Amino acid sequence: MAEVTPGVTLEEALGLPAFRRAVPEVVAGRAGLDRPIRWVHATERLDAGSLLRAGDLLLTMGTGLPADDDESALDAFVDELAESGAVGIVVELGRRWSGDLPSPLVAACERHGLPLVVLGQETRFAALAQEVGERVVDRQLTELREAQRVHETFTELSFSQAGPVEILQAVQRMVAGPVVVENAQHRPLDYFAGPDDAGGFLDGWPARSRRVEVAGRTGWDSANGWLVTRLGTADQAWGRLVIGSPEPPSQRLVAVAERAAAALALHRLHDRDRGTLMRRTHLELLSGLTDDPDSDDVLRRCELAGFPVRRRSFAGVVVRPRVGAASPADLDEVAATVVRAAHGLRLPALVSEVERDLRVLVSAAPTADVDDLVDRLAARVAQHHDVVLAAGRVVPARSGIARSVTEAGQVADAAPQVRRDNDPDVHRLADLHLRGLLALLGEDDRLRLFADRELAPLKGHDRAAGARTDLVAAVRALVMHPASKTEAAASLHLSRAAFYDRLARVEEILDADLDDPDVRVSLHVALLADELGGGDQFP
């Protein structure tokens, strides 16, 4: 794993005007020309290695070096330079040597891969040092400005409480290359392709990734062309962020990687519940499938999440805790049950949370009985939780996902909140009859006006009477028990006489005969429309 360092490479430095005028020639260690220069030093001291830091370039005329035939001393001089991390030696001909350099010096530099450059023309070392130094400073200032832009970008993401997808998309835009998040087992969790990605970036990923070791927090693997940043602490790393970088990464790219890792860690810290994280990820995938079902990026991410989307059938399901249940269902526990049930059925499912509803999308082979699989899933969930389960129609292609999910929501809205003995485990539009029709009509103003017109006189009376009477509840009991007024009265815990008194009062207010089938149907429709539209909730 190569260390990531900023600066100008020696190869770039040799192309600067002052160096070009000196007619440079590389006589050894050409493979090391891509090393970045941190600074330039000119000295004739034999112990120069002890004065240099990693990344320093040595300029010398050779006057202080050992004799040409003292091979061991020349070897020791080069060994010390290589050990210090020097990027190369530049020798000006004329003072000590006018032709070829000593062969032991050339051989030692070649052995260490330490570039050895001779200058054919006399030049001022100060001019070389100044030119390289200015370029290094300019490069570092540019890196600092870019780092500031990176800081501002991730600060905005933090303020907006961006999720992992938004963070990774920002990284992709800034680096213009592929971005991968993998878990501790080296399985890709998310992937955003770069503009030049031919589709093979993830090929053989787990095996390749296991061979890449990062000593510190961030490092560059030249073999794969990866900039790798650890996610989590050294003791509790939960994954890695990998950015495609065929060339040694700049300081800006390192800053992007490390700020992205910090943003992902902060998001994880704020949301430690792994189930919630999964639901958020699944919600992003479900939103992508409903908004743009043919997006290559969405399809790739679904496959990575273990949710097959090619040549499959789909059905949307909504799971909703019942309002007013004796033991209200905890949505986290319900979600965990749904996930376990789907896993037990080997049914791939996206499980997401929207406004305290669980929206579930299941994927099955085209030959499978999807309705039966949904029924079995619902039965397992209903064993443990008092919830409303609603399903949309099965669709044979991704283009129908939005329709199925929307229909499941409409069915959930129409399904009765109070569980009845003959209710199925999962409701479908065909099972809801009149409720289903009204759910499809949704918030149609004509339906709302009809319900208001039918029920407004009774609601007005109830508001004026307070707790002394509830005529709307009496009408609802009547239409829900059409064959027996005795059962209707019992459902309200009223005597038959008291119930008949209320019905008589209803007829008086509405100027209508409640035994007229048309009147009863009209009131029944109005009550259902009012309930589905968010009006009064009836016991």
From TrEMBL:
Residues 13-135 form the Purine catabolism PurC-like domain. Gene3D superfamilies: PucR C-terminal helix-turn-helix domain. Pfam families: GGDEF_2 (PF17853), HTH_30 (PF13556), PucR (PF07905). Residues 471-529 form the PucR C-terminal helix-turn-helix domain. Residues 292-413 form the CdaR GGDEF-like domain. InterPro entries: CdaR-like_regulators, CdaR_GGDEF, PucR_C-HTH_dom, PucR_C-HTH_sf, PucR_dom. Coiled coil: none annotated. Belongs to the CdaR family. This is PucR family transcriptional regulator ligand-binding domain-containing protein.
